[in-house]
Write a structure and sequence with these properties.
The chain has helices at about 35-45, 55-65, 85-95, 95-100, 115-120, 180-195, 205-215, 235-245, 250-255, 280-290, 290-295, 305-315, 325-335, 350-355, 375-380, 405-420; strands at about 1-5, 25-30, 30, 50-55, 75-80, 105, 110, 130-135, 140-145, 150-155, 170-175, 220, 230, 340-345, 360-365, 390, 420-424. The protein is α/β, with parallel strands linked by helices.
């Protein structure tokens, strides 16, 4: 079995990162994509590799050199008009190679765990496309399959419908074609498609035509929860480096630096950031969906109106109400105007101590494994401390400690008598 790697593209969306090199020369956590791909092909017994080059071909060829000659032969095919064509033309340049042996077809901007490649090689299906259940971060060609894993439709970006998203599988851009299929089906249709539509197209469009005529020619092979990512821009690179971190500690550090946005990692369970299981209520979601176009296109009300509305709903006078874009914005504004020593219970939401001088923080740390405390504990601790402000988060974050309303009011009365500003 041989492999064909399409590596002629310019990777414009990666900006400066591809100024001198094509995308597969991009380094992810210290290893270039092309090296990772070639090593995995070598580990799985591939006997020959054909690489279609174009943009910055010299740098790529020199980088590969003869480092892999003990594993397989590498042949380079040049696409001289890489800037005017798309991957259908690059593959057409290698079409004669496809009838020499069964082929694993790969795009060069992919990163995946080795078992993904093994699935394609070891599968009894002679012609297949690796697919992954569609998720919201995915972009590009998707397919629909039947119960027998036949691909019944290839859907490009223009034809994508979010109403049908639950039925979609994203192509991983790793394919396996037998030499017989290439000779009898794929190459004849490839030639006809290029003749009719030109060279600035995608090779998946040929498979779309074949699937339309006979859905049993190419099978879909779902990869389940195995890891893979396609790198088209700097955000993709950042996410890929998190998913494919070199070790658990490195991955944890990269995750922590993101401060949210974990919907891009569907397999991740987040027990760190605050979640309100009662919000938003179903009725609110339905109302927002019904008014989505208006919410998206109309200019929002000013702060005065927002304060009026918030005051109405919470039974508070407008002049006592400020609406912010999340707690962090309000915390910053509030603490910047605060002066003097402040009492804070630790551990706490780090946004508070991070916005205040450490020298002016007098911390109360509960002396128990549950970080539990009550109003009496706070009064006893701060009674002889010269604080100007006391901060109470209730329920507390991250401990979950809760002080009942009656006790909070008693604490408020104590702070009032002591001349201490009370922030709840």
């Amino acid at each position: 079995m041989q492999a064909i790697i399409l590596a002629a593209g310019m990777g414009r969306r990666l900006g400066e990162m591809t100024k001198e090199n094509t995308k597969c020369m991009l380094s992810i956590n210290g290893k270039r994509l092309i090296d990772k791909t070639l090593e995995q092909l070598a580990n799985n017994g591939i006997q020959k590799v054909i690489i279609v080059v174009g943009y910055s071909a010299k740098n790529l060829i020199e980088h590969i050199g003869n480092r892999y000659e003990k594993f397989f032969d590498i042949e380079f095919i040049n696409n001289p008009i890489f800037d005017k064509t798309n991957n259908i033309y690059s593959l057409a340049l290698a079409k004669e190679k496809m009838i020499e042996d069964d082929t694993i077809l790969l795009e060069s901007d992919l990163i995946y765990e080795e078992s993904v490649l093994q699935m394609a090689i070891e599968s009894p299906y002679p012609n297949l496309a690796l697919v992954s259940k569609w998720e919201s971060w995915m972009d590009g060609t998707v397919v629909q399959i039947d119960d027998q894993y036949n691909i019944i439709n290839f859907i490009n970006k223009k034809a994508f419908s979010y109403r049908d998203a639950e039925t979609y599988y994203k192509t991983v851009n790793i394919y396996k074609f037998s030499k017989e299929f290439a000779k009898q089906k794929y190459i004849p249709f490839l030639n006809a498609y290029c003749e009719a539509q030109g060279n600035n197209e995608y090779y998946e469009q040929v498979l779309r035509v074949i699937a339309f005529l006979n859905s049993q020619d190419v099978k879909a092979l779902p990869i389940g929860n195995k890891k893979w990512y396609e790198i088209d821009d700097i955000q993709d690179k950042d996410i890929a480096e998190t998913i494919f971190a070199n070790n658990d500690d490195e991955q944890l550090a990269k995750m922590n630096k993101r401060y949210g946005g974990y919907w891009r990692f569907p397999q991740l369970l987040d027990y760190c950031y605050l979640v309100n299981p009662y919000f938003p209520p179903k009725r609110m979601l339905e109302e927002m969906r019904a008014n989505f176009d208006t919410l998206l296109t109309e200019y929002p009300s000013g702060m005065g109106v927002n304060s009026l509305l918030a005051g109405k709903y919470f039974g508070i006078k407008q002049e006592y109400t400020v609406v912010g874009n999340g707690a962090a914005e309000l915390i910053k504004s509030l603490l910047e105007r605060n002066i003097g020593k402040i009492g804070i219970v630790l551990p706490t939401f780090e946004e508070y101590p991070n916005r205040y001088s450490k020298a002016d923080i007098i911390a109360f740390v509960p002396d128990n494994k549950d970080c539990a405390y009550n109003s009496s504990d706070l009064i006893k601790f701060y009674d002889n401390k010269s604080i100007k402000t006391l901060l109470l988060i209730n329920p507390d974050n991250p401990s979950g400690n809760f002080i009942p309303k009656k006790k909070v009011l008693e604490l408020a009365e104590w702070t009032k008598n002591k001349g201490i500003k009370f922030i709840v």
